[in-house]
Amino acid sequence: MSAPLQNDTFLRACLRQPTDYTPVWLMRQAGRYLKEYRDTRERAGSFMGLATNKDYATEVTLQPLDRYPLDAAILFSDILTVPDAMGLGLSFAAGEGPKFAKQVRDEAAVAALEVPDMERLRYVFDAVTSIRHALNGRVPLIGFSGSPWTLACYMVEGGGSDDYRHVKSLMYARPDLMHRILSINADAVAAYLNAQIDAGAQAVMVFDSWGGVLADGAFQRFSLDYSRRVLSQLKTEHEGRRVPRLLFTKGGGLWLDEIADAGADVVGLDWTVNLGQARQRLNDRVAFQGNLDPNVLFAPPVVVREQTRAVLDSFGRPQRADGQWGGHIFNLGHGISQFTPPDHVAELVDEVHRHSRLLRQPV
């Protein structure tokens, strides 16, 4: 892992330092929209076979970087590895998404929860180290986890949900039990991300995928407070460099100011938020990541480029009139669709790099 970093643009943008262009990576950039990913997954036999094998995980993590000049790699794994290590029995059925054999819905199930031994997640840390070696300094590696609330949604529901009936029922009827679940999750996530940093991750991201399903008030108590608890425990330096912390809450635009005060260096935005207004509102006290609507990638290439420019123009010139810099990492407002044409991704990445350089030219 001692190879010098050849492209640190992503890390610099996270820390609001000068960059020659706006860096870009995509949530779920290693995934089913790429034929090479589908081929590797078929060889692995299953999603978990892919995610738990460091060689396969390394292979698919690097696949999008071999296609596109992206500015960061993200560990190939799943947000549900932590509750799986708690003994809940994670599985993936074809076409059905994740399922847990055990649901956490009563006092006995909650009382049995504890922060798992991180050795049960050794396969993740081995993959991180393997990927860092394979990258050989090409770009930084991002580690990640689901937020305490998002993990709790899956743990209580037993899988994905359309209405979050079980987890919200428990939250309102027995807030004491929900707070215990979230406390354990927060400490587990912090330990998990710190272990990823030790293994070689150069930035870490917390995905609060389902924070936006909560009511105002409940979001702060049951989601944001526990994301803040995670962020406060994370290592901020490793290998002589700052380790940026990213927090993304899908549907979190209503609480932008509060999210920005949670302790992350970078706040991820979904496509419902006006990037320029968000920057002005927070006066560049954090960097931003986002926020193109993923469905733009189904439009003709000329529209993909047009909409990409619109996002960059919304953020504006990174260097402010006072000489300070704002940080922007280009990304989608959520994960890339499995049906996305790969050639359209190439158009997006090229336009980000091309147009963002123009925004840095002297007026």
UniProtKB/TrEMBL annotation:
The protein's location, in the record's own words, is: Cytoplasm
Q: Which PROSITE patterns does the entry mention?
A: UROD_1, UROD_2
**Chain residues that bind substrate:** 28-32, 78, 154, 209, 334
Q: Enumerate the residues marked as the site Transition state stabilizer.
A: 78
State the top-level EC class. Answer: lyase
Report the catalytic activity. Answer: uroporphyrinogen III + 4 H(+) = coproporphyrinogen III + 4 CO2
GO terms for biological process?
A: protoporphyrinogen IX biosynthetic process from glutamate
The UniProt entry lists the main location of this chain as cytoplasm
Q: Does the keyword Lyase apply?
A: yes
| Pfam families for this protein | URO-D
What are its E.C. numbers?
4.1.1.37
**Statement: the UniProt record of this protein carries the keyword Protein transport:** no
Domain of life according to the entry: Bacteria
* Molecular function terms from GO: uroporphyrinogen decarboxylase activity
The pathway where this protein functions is:
Porphyrin-containing compound metabolism; protoporphyrin-IX biosynthesis; coproporphyrinogen-III from 5-aminolevulinate: step 4/4
Q: Which InterPro entries match?
A: UROD/MetE-like_sf, Uroporphyrinogen_deCO2ase_HemE, Uroporphyrinogen_deCOase
Give an example GO cellular component term for this record: cytosol
Q: Could you tell me what this protein does?
A: Catalyzes the decarboxylation of four acetate groups of uroporphyrinogen-III to yield coproporphyrinogen-III.
Q: Which family does it belong to?
A: Belongs to the uroporphyrinogen decarboxylase family.
- Subunit architecture: Homodimer.
Q: What is this protein called?
A: Uroporphyrinogen decarboxylase
Could you tell me the gene encoding this protein? hemE
